[in-house]
Design brief:
Length: 262
């Protein structure tokens, strides 16, 4: 909820709030919704009251920034893992306005802003956004063909890094001719008890299209269905241990841009 992240492609997670509304079929097995239920927080769905946080929580990125400065190495922050930063919601709108000055105050952090609502981004950027804050990466989720409409909207957002989260990948998608201005592509299979399969040829095709377009690739995991079909899956339930993967899938790269982490 704002500490060191267990997500392979980021260092920390920071949530402006908890609570969301399902956007499409990729949300069917939403880990964030299930985690909120385990905590007993009724924060999901239209009209639900979102969970917000106080000053102590909002001060954490300032400490991460200072630690990164002292270490001489940038850190990455994913916001927000337990909501959608551009959800059409009064509370999220209000809390998001507090995020922009925090981002400006943490120049040693690269903020990874991922959304399924790119149609709301341009109208909700800060007035000084210009060509984009140098320490912000903007991404959209495209886990199946029904989400491809988000890519051209992302391409219109001024940003130093634009990325795609092809996770959970629940169907084959064709990225030919769709990667102009995209600097990074994350690929991952779905995890959990009701996970849907990610066929490895789907992932290989996405990887090859991205590499051909000059984008960096980060394969996060092959998913529960793939892992459960192999010996040792109990120690690797999400398929994150890349020593077990086919060699052609063992790629974990990061983009290079102004403010981007090495």
């Amino acid at each position: 909820m704002g500490e060191n992240s267990g997500i392979g492609w980021t260092s920390h997670t920071f949530n402006v709030a908890w609570g969301c509304v399902e956007a499409d079929d990729s949300c069917d097995n939403c880990y964030a919704r299930e985690q909120a239920k385990r905590y007993g927080w009724n924060v999901w769905g239209p009209g639900a009251t979102r969970r917000t946080f106080g000053d102590t929580y909002w001060a954490k990125p300032l400490k991460w920034d200072e630690a990164a400065r002292l270490a001489g190495r940038r850190a990455r922050v994913f916001s927000s893992s337990m909501t959608d930063l551009f959800l059409n919601d009064r509370t999220i709108d209000s809390e998001r306005e507090k995020l922009w000055p925090l981002i400006r105050s943490t120049p040693n952090l690269d903020w990874q802003l991922l959304t399924k609502h790119p149609e709301r981004v341009l109208a909700n950027l800060p007035s000084d956004w210009g060509d984009g804050y140098p320490n912000v990466w903007f991404g959209v989720t495209v886990g199946y063909a029904g989400g491809l409409w988000r890519i051209p909207m992302l391409q219109r957002i001024p940003a130093h890094v634009r990325f795609l989260s092809v996770e959970p990948m629940t169907g084959e998608i064709d990225l030919r001719g769709k990667l102009d201005g995209i600097g990074w592509v994350i690929v991952g299979g779905e995890s959990g008890h009701h996970a849907r399969p990610m066929e490895l040829p789907w992932a290989v095709d996405v990887m090859s299209r991205a590499l051909d377009a000059g984008a960096a690739i980060f394969v996060k995991q092959l998913g529960t269905v793939w892992s459960s079909s192999r010996a040792g899956h109990r120690a690797d339930p999400h398929g994150t241990d890349w020593t077990r993967w086919p060699r052609e899938l063992r790629i974990r790269q990061f983009p290079i841009a102004i403010g981007a982490a090495a």
